[in-house]
Amino acid sequence: MRFKRLSIICLFLIVVCSGFAQEYKIHSHNDYKQNIPFWKAFGAEVQSIEVDVFYEDGELFVAHEVKEINENKTLQRLYLEPLKEALSLQMMTNRSLQLVIDVKTDAVNSLNAIVSILKQYPTIINNKDVRIVISGNRPDLKEYVNYPEYILFDYHSVEPITDLKTLDKIAMVSVSFKNFSEWNGKGRLTAEDYARVTDVIHKAHQLNKPFRFWATPDSKSAWKAFVNMGVDFINTDQPNECVAYVSTISQRVVQNTVFSEVYRPTFASDKAKRNPKNIILMIGDGNGLTQISSTVLANNGELSLTQLKSIGFIKTQSADDFTTDSAGAGTAIATGEKTNNRAIGTNAMGDNIPNIVEILSKNGFNTGVITTDEITGATPSSFFAHRTDRGMVQEIASDLNFSELELFISQHTSAVHGIEEVGYQMKTEIKDIGISMEEKVGAWFNNTKDETLESYVERLSVATKNGLSFLANKKESFFLMTEGAKIDSYGHENKIEGVINESISFDKAISEALKFADTNKNTLVIITADHETGGLTIPQGNVDKHEIEADFTTHDHTGTMVPIFAYGPMS
Fold it and tell me: Looking at the keywords, is Signal present (predicted)?
């Protein structure tokens, strides 16, 4: 399904300055300390690699201190030969690499040795996608122009350079972060430190050169802060982790554009000690506490859901597994009995067990199921079918023909056929259900390729409102299960934008249920989830900007508890 979605504001803003285009790149700091120097960072696709060298006895040794010098660890063996190999194998296609050589010994002698050695590697020094940058001990600034074209320098200052030839020899600007802040990468920079740090970045960019801090905190919070502040080379000792994080920020940060108007219940009948006439059960598939939290924070800090006062938690383990699937969980909710994963309306031994729809139907209730999934999906089918495996779609569809349901609304599925022959009046418009006086009705959600996001997120609330009207018109007690199914789908895909949009849609449906309960005061509303999906965490965000950053730990369900909310009599 395609929607006219508003674009996510991308964090990777391309700021064009005269002289260079700002891009966020990763600098593998002290790369030689990796268990596999060069190749680990190269494989992570960093854009800059740093190596410390000592010039001793005519050799350039790779080490952090003199006492660490190992005769086998030379600049050639650890870096120049691997780089030559990478070029010969055409592993540098569509990418560039900056090799930063941090000189720890006498600048002039060491640099002369570096130049001499580099002449032995014409494929490196003549390659336009490779830059050799000298850092650490360097000759006087005015001497830079005396070195070969392929030798560039790291400038450790933000002071202006007036000589254009000298400026051309500057590859980047680098200064110590600790000169401006003691921030350890946890929490946030203080306002004062933030001002100092952004000021030095601004001054560095006045030179029209990419900028790097060294001696930086090395955490996700720090990496994101540096990206947001415009640091061009992100300094890290964790190249794989940093690349994976920074390269996916635009996928994991969303600025919410559709909102749920918060309904504030009257609480007139909440917690009343009387049996409810009607029961509305709402299941957010995959809707764990963090999914709810992310939606709250993206929705101006509150939802209709979070107005409720009766709140608890549910353990979700199935009878045969630590982590449940939707079938095992849906059956447990619908029947009150834990069962195996994949089971629909059957117990752990495979025997049919009655569900709440069947039980209440025998006691005079009308019943209905609304879902943004197909009606044969694991959660909705748990309320009318009895099969040992959720994959028995045709058999589950046949159970619908013999179900006690007076109402169903779902995505269309070709598995269901002959439904009108068993008494269901199928409506082409969901709004027609709300005024229908027929005994049994059904409808499919209309899928149109040009549907807007705003109209899409209204679907479930419109269906819920009309479904409640249909059941209430019968003047008898009723049970309605409404499922927001696709919170789970986007959790599996690790797409936070989808999770929030679907959760906004679910909250709009919750608003309709709460409004109905306030008007029909013998109505109990129960809101829960079958399980959490994605192992979602939300480390950062901005409530004022409706911005959420997400981290997912899995593409599957998790074993974490899920919340349950209730409103109305016996809540």
Answer: yes
Pairwise CA distance, residues 375 & 411, whole Å: 7
Would you say 29 is a known binding-site residue?
no
How far apart, in whole angstroms, are the C-alpha atoms of residue 391 and residue 378? 9
Distance CA 536, CA 553 (A): 7
Q: Which of 266, 253, 255 is nearest to 300 (CA)?
A: 255
Taking each helix axis from N to C end, the angle separating 220-229 and 191-205, rounded to the nearest 10 degrees, works out to 50
Domain locations along the chain: 16-247, 277-567
Q: Is it true that domain 16-247 has CATH number 3.20.20.190?
A: yes
d(CA 304, CA 290): 16
Question: Considering Cα of 260, then 262, then 266, then 269, what sign does the dihedral take?
Answer: positive
Q: Any catalytic annotation for residue 88?
A: no
User: What proportion of the chain, given as a percentage, has pLDDT over 70?
Assistant: 96
530 belongs to an annotated ligand binding site: yes
Per the residue annotation, which of 174, 326, 381, 403 is the catalytic one? 326
CATH class (in words) of the domain with range 277-567: alpha beta
Q: What's the one-letter identity of residue 297?
A: L
Number of CB atoms found within 10 A of residue 165's CB: 10
Instruction: Give the separation between CA 510 and CA 500, rounded to whole angstroms.
Output: 15
Confirm or deny that 379 is annotated as ligand binding: yes
Q: What is the pLDDT of residues 32-46, one digit of tens each?
A: 999 999 999 999 999
Which residue is it, tokens 């019968």?
474
Q: What is the pTM of this model?
A: 0.88
- Residue 483, annotated ligand binder? yes
548 has which bridge partners? 254, 541
Largest CA distance in the chain: 97
